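Supplementary Methods, section 5.1.

A reviewer requested that the exact input to the structure prediction be made available. We therefore reproduce it here, unchanged from the version used in the analyses.
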Amino acid sequence: MDQESVPLYRFLAPRFWPLWLGLGVIRVLTWLPLAGQRAAGWVIGRVAYWLARERRRIALINIGLCFPELDDSQRRTLARRHFDSLGMSLIETGMCWWASDRRVRNRVTYTGLEHLEAAMADGRGAILLTGHFTTLDLGGRFMTLVAPVAAMYRRADNPLLEEVMRRGRTRAADAVVPKQDVRGTLRHLKANRAIWYAPDQSHRRQNSAVVPFFGVPAATNTATSKFARLARAPVVPFYPVRLPGSAGYRLDILPALEDFPSDDPQADTARINALLESRVRLCPEQYLWVHKRFKPPTPGHVDPYAAPPT
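The structure derived from this sequence is encoded token-by-token as follows.
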């Protein structure tokens, strides 16, 4: 069931003022031309790199695990570029929520639209498979311009942020669906909508399997197989790419996965991780490295994020 709107005047208490200020700054930044946004994103990212010490530490650990061939200097360079990308992602999320369709459309080129059209021709919708890139929200907005989309999302803990996110995504997509709403997901697929889905953050629940990601065991959501089997829907990978300078963005849509799902959800999940890894290698600074992707799936596994003994 779609969530009802909450009036914004309910969030005027002082505890919400810092978030209101931050949202106001982001909205002002969305009015800048792309070159100005890139400059502002770089400033935000560099400040965050030095202030967000714990997130910087997590990013360096993840980068070290996934790119062992890099030396310490190269890892730190990639981490700084990643924080630059994070800074830009805040502005891009504002674009997703508040920019007009015309402004958004003028910034993107598409490759592989024919694959999406072919997948949806059977009337069973499509599962739009992607990963947690820093361009995730804006990439979803790009997709809404070419297909009827229901966006799957995780609710925010802060109620004001949750309401702003819900309004923004509802404005961009045909519908929004909480990740836990299996029935809602299937309902939208049966209505021949595309479901925007990123399963690559770690899960330690029933619908998960430990499969390699960059050669490192990672607890990964297996629900993609489940949704594809229940709805008999094709799985269409898509990946947004932030291009250099003021070149804008490219949305790459790949052919629907063949012979998917199989009888082995763990093998399907490993296949999805391998595909995602190949895309991350094309623009590694744009993947979300500040998330604890390799949390131990059980207490018996080593936690790479544990602080070293003092």
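Residues 136 and 240 are 7 Å apart (CA to CA). These observations are discussed further in the main text.
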